[in-house]
Specification:
84 residues; mainly alpha
């Protein structure tokens, strides 16, 4: 494993930690983990990779193509935006 791939995996783990902390109501912990990223680009990249892995897992678990899962998620987000 290269240093770059190790950093990407660590970033993904940190992103998961942020989500877990927020889910448990630990806003301070989520902020502390977010502050550990070296910059906004690294944070965005970690969340992008985590999202791709998550969508692939949902796709595999449901037996539906990733494109269908993405479409459904997009429609739900649009419905939430329209409700505001």
């Amino acid at each position: 494993m290269t240093g770059d791939s190790a950093a990407l995996l660590a970033g993904m783990q940190r992103a998961l930690g942020i989500i877990a902390a927020r889910n448990h109501g630990d806003v301070a912990g989520a902020h502390a983990l977010a502050a550990e990223f070296p910059d906004d680009a690294a944070r965005a990249h970690a969340f992008l990779l985590l999202t791709e892995v998550s969508l692939t897992l949902v796709s595999s678990g449901s037996g539906r193509p990733v494109q269908d899962v993405v479409r459904d998620l997009s429609l739900r987000i649009a419905a939430l935006a329209a409700a505001d």
